[in-house]
Write a structure and sequence with these properties.
The protein is mainly beta and 126 residues long. The protein contains no helices and eleven strands.
């Protein structure tokens, strides 16, 4: 199993920005697709964004398109989620998830994820 560790969460005001990071315990990121997911209180865990192993393909949930950007740095075994124009509805625990030999679009299903991080709390106040 790959160990994933998220960081960068916090408390912000609506309209602010945050950048989340997820680092994997692997020397290389070869063939490993990564994504971000979130779970709000009383809600199921939902897909947010995903990126292919090469970084050439990305996929976003409709609720975050135009506001969030996913990227990765394979040399650092790290994936990022830049979150802009945050809304109170974005409040959730954000999880990093990954799967080998998978596509960005395929990551949109939470059941496709093989490795999960512990999560980082993002709270957006009104």
């Amino acid at each position: 199993q790959v160990q994933l560790v998220e960081s960068g969460g916090g408390l912000v005001q609506a309209g602010d920005s945050l950048r989340l990071s997820c680092t994997a315990s692997r020397h290389t990121f070869s063939r490993y697709a990564l994504g971000w997911f979130r779970q709000a209180p009383g809600k199921e865990r939902e897909f947010v964004a995903a990126i292919s192993w090469s970084g050439d393909s990305t996929y976003y949930a409709d609720s975050v398109k135009g506001r969030f950007t996913i990227s990765r740095d394979n040399a650092k075994n790290t994936v990022y989620l830049q979150m802009n124009s945050l809304k109170s509805e974005d409040t959730a625990v954000y999880y990093c998830g990954g799967r080998e030999f998978w596509t960005a679009q395929g990551m949109s299903a939470t059941t496709a994820i093989r490795d999960w991080g512990q999560g980082t709390q993002v709270t957006v106040s009104s």
